[in-house]
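Side project, low priority. Logging it here so it doesn't get lost.
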Amino acid sequence: MKDKPDDLLAALEGRRWQSGAEVARRLGVSRAAVWKRIERLRSQGYGIEAVAGRGYRLVRDSDLLLPDAIRKHLRAKLLRGEIVHRTTIDSTNRLAAEQARGGAVEGTIVVAEQQTAGRGRLGRTWVSPASVNLYMSVVLRPRIPPLEVPRLTLVAGLAVAEAIRDSGTFQPRIKWPNDVLLDGRKVAGILTELEAEADRVRFVIVGIGVNLNATRTDFPPDLKTKATSLLLAGGAPVDRAAFTGRLLTRLDAAYAAFLSGGFAALRHRYEELHGLVGLAVTIDGTPPLAGTVRGVDDGGALLVESGGALQRVVSGEVTLRQAYRKLRRGPV
């Protein structure tokens, strides 16, 4: 018989003492089977007390990003596929792509406690210490031309920023195209990859990394002044499963809006959280561009005023030509 730890968790949800006989009766299994499931839940990080004559009591939820724990906080219409959990993996994007090639449905989600080869944009490494942050990839199968796929990076960035804002008194800012900042330091990033034919998208993998409970010692020396976490910014640990559920709910809604109305349907929400407006930047390109950011357009392009003309930037690495002071203060 396949274990159903979610049924047992539901039986223990009230955090009161319940006899083994009562739990076994509710689940329709033997008391020995209940004990086996209790041990499995304990191995997954749940705190469950067991006392002879009193029974069992749930005293602490697991901090692992387990599918059942995430689903408790997920309200989605499109992202309802399987949640695949791994303790350690090289890259969630790699496994998500493998799942997609094998026929995984849209909304399949891969989460991991740790990545050994996490990746960011431009071949960079995403530092992924164990069991403190969120490392997640989502399989999407949008019916859009391949040229529109980069806009999904902006959609995901918006969802991440809104989920962070929902989590407390944080004032996140989006650094176009794929970074989310707190107090001018990077707290999240998005890596979007696709597999497509000339005129058809087979699938898109949206990889999301969010620093949730990382401490300063979790960052290597070159990132200690450039990166932060919700714990460092807010002073309190974050429930990782609850945050993941909220983020996926936000992503589900933003993705649905994008499919029905394009990025134009999300532009006003994006600009509320855009942190570059009014700042002097340089953009890598041929030739490089220098100017002042004026916003984004309905297609998600960055609008940069340079030499008295407004230029559309659709790709490139943005470098600030001044400090992050305005980003720290909030909207400009």
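Brief comment: The chain has three domains: 5-60, 67-273, 280-329.
Revisit when time allows.
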